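B., you asked whether I could sanity-check this one before it goes into the benchmark set. Here's the sequence:
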Amino acid sequence: MSYNLLKGKKGIIFGALDEKSIAWKTAIRCHEEGAGIVLSNAPVALRMGEINKLSEQINAPVIGADVVNMEDLNNLFIKSMEHFGGKIDFVLHSIGMGLNVRKGKHYTEMNYEWNHKTLDISAMSLHRVLRTAWDLDAINDWGSVLALTYIAAQRVFPDYNEMADAKALLESITRSFGYHYGDKKKVRVNTISQSPTKTTAGSGVKGFDGFVNYAEKMSPLGNATAEDCANFCVVMFSDMTRMVTMQNLFHDGGFSFTGVTQGVIEMMEK
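And here's what the prediction gave me:
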C-alpha cells in the first residue's frame, strides 16, 4: 500500500546489489511512495550484482561511484542533480565491506592494511558522501540522510570482527556531521541499527544463521526484515520525521533493550 509519503521527492540510494539487499527493497518502496531515484554502487558491484534489473523496474538511472573516490562522488551528485533538474531530498548509505572478515582474519590477528580499507569503505565513505553533498549544496533544506548500522557498534559480537569498529565510526560521523548539517542547512543525518538480516553481505559473517536465530529468540517482536527496514527508511525520508537527527535508531524488534527472554532461558535449560 502506498501513502504518497515521498511524492515529488528525489534521492540517491547506494548499495543495491541484488533482491536480498535492504537498499534494493528501499529503492522499490521509495519508488512506490512517489520518489524519483538514482541508484549507485561501486564499479565492481555493478558488474557482480543485478542492479540493472532494479533500474528497469523503478525507472532509475544507475551512476557508478567508488565511495572512497571524491571525484566519483562529485560526478555522482552533479549528474543526479542534472537528472532531477535540481537538488535531492534524501540519501541512503547502505555500504559495508570487512576485508578481514572476508579473508578469515580473526579480530586479534587482523591485517591493518585491510582494516584501513574496511574503515574507509564502511565508515569514512559516509563522511565523503556528506562532504560532497555539503560542498555542492546538493540536498534540499529538511533533507534526510540515512546510513545502516548494527548494535555491534555498542556491544560485543565476537564474529562481527572489525565491522563493529567500522559501525562505531559510522555512528560517530553521523552525530558529528549531523550537527553541522543540521545547524547550517537543516539536513538531518541518522543511522538505523537493523536486526541481523539475511542479505548477501550479511550472510558472509561467520555463524550468521545461529546469530539470526538467537536474535529472533531475544527480540519480543522478532527480527525486523529487510522489507520492514525499507518501510522505516521511507518514514525517515519523509516530512513526518523532520525533527529527528543525529540519532542511532534501533530497528530490531526490541532486541537492543532486552536482557533475556523466556525463549532463551528455555533454550539454555534444555
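One thing to flag: The first strand starts at residue 10 and ends at 14. Otherwise nothing jumped out at me.
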